[in-house]
Amino acid sequence: MSALRSIPPVPLTGELFAPFGTVLAAGLGRSSLVNDGRGIRYDAEHGLGFAGEPLPPVLALYRLTPSRLPFTVTAMEQHPLSSQTFVPMTGGRFLVVAALADADGEPDPETARAFIAGPDQAITYAGGVWHCPLVALDETADFAMMMWRAPDPDADCRVVSLSVPLLVADQTATT
């Protein structure tokens, strides 16, 4: 295993995350009044996508124990057929690490980015985007996860170990 590749985390924004998927938060996207004018609905730019004929969607709950920065990413996963959405239900900040595929379909470390998301931000990874399993920061957190169920689940979940792990560390923090 080679030395670590350091990537500093940045605050999650729709613009910065766009190569990897979409961010859903109040104030982003199309909006409309709902519930007799007592609420505002914000629609995600893209819905849940699937390449092919999916089975019914999966709605699951993830409960994550907290981690801290610096955080080492040793493996990434990819859902080549479907997008995947995570919506925080409890907890605080969470870490999002994503990368595009290289010419061989593997994670491209040159495109790897790390984001710090707030408890008021949901994310959708686009199909085929490599990502680190979700990481809660600071406190235990619950997330709702939504994606389409693939007829062959093994065909829609690839996990690879990174030959060069990614170190997500705040370069401005003092110790």
Q: Output the helix-strand order.
A: EEHEEEEEEEEEEEEEE
Instruction: Please outline the major beta sheet.
Output: 6 strands, mixed
Low-confidence runs: none
Determine the fraction of residues in helical runs and give it as a percent range.
under 10%
SSE-based structural type: mainly beta
> What CATH first level would be assigned?
Mainly Beta
CATH topology: Jelly Rolls
Range of strand content: over 45%
Number of helices: 1
**CATH architecture classification:** Sandwich
Question: Which of globular, elongated, flat, extended, rod-shaped describes the shape?
Answer: globular
* Tally of DSSP β-strands: 16
Radius of gyration: 17 Å
**First-to-last CA distance:** 27 Å
Helix/strand layout:
Layout: E1 5-7, E2 9-11, H1 14-17, E3 21-24, E4 30-34, E5 39-43, E6 55-64, E7 66-67, E8 71-78, E9 84-88, E10 94-99, E11 113-117, E12 122-125, E13 130-131, E14 135-137, E15 141-149, E16 158-168
Parallel strand pairs: 1-16, 2-11, 7-14
Antiparallel strand pairs: 3-12, 4-5, 6-15, 8-16, 9-12, 9-15, 10-11, 10-13, 10-14
